[in-house]
Each structure stands twice: as C-alpha cells, then as structure tokens.
Amino acid sequence: MTDQALIIQFQNGDSKEGAFTQLLKRHQAPVFFQIKKMVLEHADADDIAQAVWIKVWNKLDGFKQESAFSTWLFRIAYNETLNFIAQKKRLKTHSTQNELDHNVAHPSSQDALKETAVQIKLERAIAELPEKQRFVFMLRYYEAFDYEKIASITGTTVGGAKANYHQAVKKMTSILEQD
Amino acid sequence: MNNTNDPENESVSKELEEALKSFASNTKQVPAGYFDQFELDLMQKIKATGQAPLKAPIISLFSNQKKYLVAASLLFAIATGYLFMNKAANTSDSIANVETIDIKTLPDELIEAYVSNNELVAEVEWNSAIEAVGANLTSTNN
Known about the structure:
heterodimer; A: mainly alpha; Rna Polymerase Sigma Factor, Chain: A; 9 helices; B: mainly alpha
C-alpha cells in the first residue's frame, strides 16, 4: 500500500494501528539516522525519534496530504531535533558543541566510532556547523533529497537550502585540510 | 552523494567523501533488534497516553421514559410561556382600552345637565379669581 492509502486508512479509523505501524516500518530508519547524525548520541536520537512518531500519531488525522508524507515527517523530525538541541544548550552549562566534541573525543562503546584523525576532524567540523545547515547538508548528501523538498522540510527557500549546503561543504573541507 | 551527473556542482573532495562515508557507517550502528523494540515501546507509549479511563455503561431505569419526560417538560415550558405572554397582552390591552362615547348618542337632557353643572362651577371659580384680583388692587391703593 502507498503512503497515501495508509494515511487514508488511518484517518478513516480502519485499523489505525496497522496503518501507522506500516508507515513506521517504512520510514523509521531514515528518520532515525538523520536524527542520529545530528545529535550523535544513540539515547538522544531515540528520545527524539519517539517524540517525532508520537507527534505523527497525534497529528496524522489532520494531515491533508498537501505534501508527501516523508516531507511532513522529516519536517517534524527537523523541528523536534532543533528543539532538543536548543533545550540541551539551555539546560547544560556547556554548549552542545562541547558535548559533540566530547562525544568525538570519547565515543561510547555502544556507538563504536572509528577514531581516525580524519573522523575526529570531520565530526568537529560537523559540530561547528549551525544546526540548520547541518540538517540541510545531511538531507542532501545522505538522503539525496531535492532542494524543493529540503526547503519544505526546513522552512527555507530553495536558494537558501542550496547556500546552506555549499557553505557546509566549504566549511568541512576547510577544516579537514587543516593540519 | 557522489554521482557523475552533478548539475548543482556539489562534488566534494575525496578526503571529505571518505570521511563522510565513515561517518555514515558509524552513525548507522544500532543495537540488534533496535527498530523492532522501538515499535513496541512506541505503541505502548501511544496507548498509555491516549487511553482514557474506561467508564462503565450506565443502564438507566428511565431510559425509555426519559424522552417522554423531556417532551413533557418542553410542552409545559411552552404552554407556560404562552399563557404568560397572553396574560400580559390582555392586561396591557385592558389598560389601554378606554371606552369612548359618541356625543350624538347622548340624550339632550344629560348634555344640558352636564353643561349647567360645569358652568356653575366655572362661574364660581371665575368669580373667586376676580375677587382675589380685586382684593389685591384695593390693598395696593391703600
């Protein structure tokens, strides 16, 4: 069944849970990995992903399908991720960037990050990117979303999304080239 | 994202490309069975937050008569309202009603008697007024 058909089934109340779990199985991995690339910590990504899908459950009845389901879903993920990061910045004395730096220097055994010099540099570079730029880059590079979709997800223009991507590439390249 | 067709000119350096590949590989590591467990945990949470306390159905002894009671109450209210409005209208009408008499229908003797009586009263009042004015003049001259 297509996403549209599953959504209609959900909205009609016909086996709501069944329709929802099908959507979940189809989309949960890319959403989760997008979130994890943003926050790095598995536990944080798990919390955010749970919040995203609970929101989907609560709001799917009102979803008018003016955009693709995945666009709408990633938009929720985008908002939840940025809210989470902002909240963590407010709550902790150290910034999220410091936390990302900490994760880079001391990866958890669960995450099992490869600690090459290049990797460490890259993750530092990613951590230095503004969150929105980071999200745009990840969507474009890893999910190969077109710029119209990225603009819808992040609430920016196509030109803005392109600029974000190119600036992210430029910054990461520059940091990697540093000794 | 490293395809040969690159209309957006988004090619990245080899070094960055390799680093990004490793980064993706690392972040994609999840515990075994994670997504299955995620689904179970999520549905449990949704059910827990969405579940309202179950209410036992109320079996009313008056379920059949209720509609008749409601209908009767409504009729009573309408009837009372109608009567009230009607009574108010009658009272106001009765106050407004003033009996009019056509003078042509009155007998002449009655009219003459009325005029005579009132003429006498008018004359007395007029004489009293004159006397009062006259008394004032007298006192002024003195």
